[in-house]
Amino acid sequence: MAKVCIICGQEVPHGRMVADDAVIRSIRWAKQSLHIAKNNTLVVCEKDLEAHKKKRQGYERNLAVYIVIAGIVLVLLVLLPIFTTGFSLYAVLVGLLFAAILVLMPVITSHTPALAEAQKTPPAGKKAAGKEAAGKKQVKKK
Ligand SMILES: [Zn+2]
């Protein structure tokens, strides 16, 4: 199986493995159904690690924003009819459709899978939490 970098799209001798996520599994399943699967191993080559990190962060942020917007749209479309003309199944279905499209948009435009060994990096925000605790102690002293 050839190793293909997901950032530069080139076949590379080695690279960091990419984690299989729901999107990759769906794409692979679709390709296998259509018999166009190349069964390449998806990796990120050494020179693209930094670019991948940035892309992944951008994708995660995008996805989070769109999920929030989708949630708001769905809630509005479910609640608005209840307060005006009464519960509407049609509005709920439209809301679900809109929400699905909203969540799919960042996935289609900027999906970037995580690296397989990403768990090794310590969780971000640990330092910040420590600072917060220190801040609380100072308040107590006063
Ligand atoms: Zn590359």
Describe this structure in words.
The mean pLDDT is 86. The protein has one domain (3-122). The chain starts with a strand and ends with a helix. The relative contact order is 0.14. The protein has a three-stranded mixed sheet, with no helix packed on it. It has helices at residues 22-33, 49-83, 89-110, 126-141, and strands at residues 3-5, 16-17, 41-44. 60% of the residues lie in helices and 6% in strands. It is mainly alpha-helical and 142 residues long. Helix 2 (49-83) packs antiparallel against helix 3 (89-110). The protein is built from four helices and three strands. Zinc ion is lined by residues 5, 7-8, 10, 45, 48.
Q: Count of DSSP E strands?
A: 3
Using the CA coordinates, give the radius of gyration: 21 Å
Structural category: mainly alpha
Distance between the termini: 64 Å
User: What composes the largest sheet?
Assistant: 3 strands, mixed
User: Within the largest sheet, what's the order of strands?
Assistant: 1-3-2
Number of helices: 4
H/E series: EEHEHHH
Percent helix: 55-70%
Which helices and strands occur, and which strands form pairs?
Elements: E1 3-5, E2 16-17, H1 22-33, E3 41-44, H2 49-83, H3 89-110, H4 126-141
Parallel strand pairs: 1-3
Antiparallel strand pairs: 2-3
Helix pairs in contact: 2-3
The structure holds zinc ion.
Zinc ion (ZN) binds at residues 5, 7-8, 10, 45, 48.
